[in-house]
């Protein structure tokens, strides 16, 4: 995964330049705080890029968020489900896959509902009645 400061999201497709386009798995998202918990739990020091998610966000809990709308800047994404970790996680850090299986530690996958350009520092918040927490990418 190549780190970027900004990206363009396209409705119904995903991130411009990403290999996976369309379907329900248009964008994968990892929570920074949850990743830090996983590293502490497994005594790891892996960079979040090892998870290979498209976006790293902070200040929102992704756990049990299926069907919710996540706003990043002016873009909106509908969480379609939990991203389940694969065996590569255990190769990267012993015990990581099992740890990630708890509390949606692998993050989520989502569909782009509202297109737009996003960048580091954009506000990240739940855009529905259940939300209320906000932070940044």
SSE blueprint and pairings:
Layout: E1 6-10, E2 14-15, E3 27-31, H1 32-42, E4 55-57, E5 69-72, E6 75-82, H2 88-92, H3 96-100, E7 108-114, E8 116-119, E9 123-126, E10 134-136
Parallel strand pairs: 3-4
Antiparallel strand pairs: 1-2, 1-8, 3-7, 5-6, 5-9, 6-7, 9-10
Q: Any overview of this molecule?
A:
The chain has helices spanning 32-42, 88-92, 96-100; strands at 6-10, 14-15, 27-31, 55-57, 69-72, 75-82, 108-114, 116-119, 123-126, 134-136. The protein has 137 residues and is an alpha+beta fold. The strands form two sheets. The chain has a seven-stranded mixed β-sheet. It has one domain (6-136): M1 Pyruvate Kinase, Domain 3 (Beta Barrel). 15% of the residues lie in helices and 33% in strands.
Features:
single chain; 137 residues; alpha+beta; M1 Pyruvate Kinase, Domain 3; seven-stranded mixed β-sheet; three-stranded antiparallel β-sheet; 10 strands; globular
């Amino acid at each position: 995964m190549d780190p970027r400061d900004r990206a363009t999201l396209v409705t119904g497709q995903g991130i411009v330049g990403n290999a996976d386009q369309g379907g329900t798995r248009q964008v994968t998202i990892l929570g920074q705080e949850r990743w830090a918990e996983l590293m502490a739990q497994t005594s790891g020091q892996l960079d979040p890029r090892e998870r290979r998610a498209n976006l790293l966000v902070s200040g929102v809990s992704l756990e049990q968020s299926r069907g919710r709308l996540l706003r990043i800047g002016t873009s909106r994404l509908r969480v379609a489900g939990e991203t389940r970790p694969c065996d590569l996680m255990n190769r990267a850090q012993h015990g990581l896959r099992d740890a990630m299986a708890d509390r949606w530690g692998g993050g989520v996958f989502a569909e782009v509902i509202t297109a737009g350009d996003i960048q580091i520092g954009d506000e990240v918040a739940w855009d529905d009645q259940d939300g209320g927490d906000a932070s940044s990418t």
